[in-house]
Amino acid sequence: MWKDFREFAFRDNVLDLAVAVVIGAAFGKIVSSLVENIIMPLLGILVGGIDFTGLIFKVGDAKVTYGVFLQNVFDFLIIAFAIFMFLRLLTKLKRHKEEEVEEEQDVKEELLREIRDLLKDE
């Protein structure tokens, strides 16, 4: 059983997933800080200093803090957009790199054809 667990835990895809989770958590903190410390204060200036977290209404003794919910929704949208843009950039870079490799392969194949043809002629 220990051997099976060790093989499962140390497979490449499990380790890759663990690294991705740690990096994702760190990236989430960065984006949350961006939203909380830069974007929301600027948005507050644009809309006259409104702070979403202060939006509360009371029902009897209960406080419904819908402003905190709105803040969390906005945070989610900004984080999702930031991750989308990051992944889009990575995809473009990867595609560009793959195109360069394909072009390099095409050049090599063409050179090999030319060498073959020259050797046939001799």
UniProtKB/TrEMBL annotation:
Subunit structure: Homopentamer.
Coiled-coil regions listed: 87-121
Any single GO CC term annotated in Swiss-Prot or TrEMBL for this entry: plasma membrane
Membrane topology qualifier: Multi-pass membrane protein
Alphabetical list of Pfam families matching this protein: MscL (PF01741)
Protein name per its UniProtKB record: Large-conductance mechanosensitive channel
Major subcellular site: membrane
NCBIfam families on file: mscL, PRK00567.1-4
Any one GO MF annotation of this record: mechanosensitive monoatomic ion channel activity
Protein purpose: Channel that opens in response to stretch forces in the membrane lipid bilayer. May participate in the regulation of osmotic pressure changes within the cell.
Keywords from the UniProt entry: Cell membrane, Coiled coil, Ion channel, Ion transport, Membrane, Transmembrane, Transmembrane helix, Transport
Ranges annotated as spanning the membrane: 14-31, 38-57, 69-90
Family recorded in the similarity comment: Belongs to the MscL family.
Gene: mscL
Organism: Edaphobacillus lindanitolerans
Subcellular locations according to the entry: Cell membrane; Membrane
Domain of life: Bacteria
